[in-house]
Amino acid sequence: MKSVLLLGATGSIGTTFLTALRNQPELDIRIAGMTASSNKALEQLGREFNAPYFYLQGSDRSKLKAIIDETKPDIILNAIAGTDGLTASAEALDSGLDLALANKESIVLGGHFLLDKAKDNNARIIPVDSEHSAIYHLLMGKKAERLIITASGGPFRTLENLEDVTIQEALNHPTWKMGKKITIDSATLANKGLEVIEASLLFGFPPEKIDVTVHPQSIIHSMIETAEGAVYALMSPPDMTLPILTAIIEEGSGMKDIVKPLSFSSGLSLTFSPWDRKRFPMLEYAYEALRQGAGYRIAYASADETAVNAFLNGRIGFMDIARITKEVLSSDYPASEPDTLEEILEIRKDAERKAEALC
Fold it and tell me: Where does the DXP reductoisomerase C-terminal domain lie (predicted)?
């Protein structure tokens, strides 16, 4: 029985995970504890799953340490949204526990600081994002020369004028049900930019060895290309349940019929196309930030988050997200990897201040 401390129980990933446990009570998973920043539903969830619950801000590291010590989990699922998840990831790895990571900003900001923590504490970082989960499993059997990450293209893949996009339109994703921030990031392709950075750091591939292709069906989650020229893909319906559960327990450990199998006999159409660099510059900015160094990728994630929040609050337009991010990235940041969490948070704060001034 694998015991899990769930960070971010009331968000999109947390909700999907708990729904899976309701639907499959035979799974060898027990909730050791759960957290949320503030939500009345947390108390009800704690009672339902017979688990202690805690109100936790993502940046409260000392409280998280106390929660880990009290609940004694086997693994931590970090489903906290946004850059606040970094501190939680650092504390989880310091505790020597495996980290099922749904918070991509942790790797984008933390980079080698987090990877070194995992190594020093003999802990694993197991990705939960469907794209990185796919790569993680594909690389178990093959050595890759190139990574190919798929993108749905978001709700505006074919829309000509993006200047007048409304908040509600941007929140209407065609294939995935997600939280607000990641849904807006998917609409601008910033989410894919964060995923490219995360893949580069997690799997050790330079940016020129990571491609993105638009795949509207969201059935192929990622592909790897070998030196021989063969391409291997992981395919499943667009449902986060599978990558969440495979990050927590090994495949075959009581898991059955987690997602509905694909039907090839009834016809299955898969299409691919290049992404439009002019209409969706946020992905290009991510590649540039990755090439420039650690401080720039931290600034990219921080500026984007600040701008997305401003858009969701009606303060800026949809295309202003990219304009603000570009302006913030025009400043100078350290290229070398930060040695401490404080250094990372200082760069983050600096980029957030600059972005806020532009909103």
Answer: 235-352
- Predicted TM-score (pTM) of the model is 0.93
Say yes or no: 186 and 40 in one domain: no
Do both 306 and 180 map to the same domain?
yes
In a domain, 209, yes or no: yes
Which residue range forms the structural domain that includes residue 160? 133-227+272-358
Residues at the binding site are 10-13, 39, 103-105, 129-131, 152, 173, 179, 186, 191-192, 195
**Which residue among 127, 157, 178 closes a domain?**
127
292-326 tens-digit pLDDT = 999 999 999 999 999 999 999 999 999 999 999 99
Binding residues for NADPH: 10-13, 39, 103, 105, 179
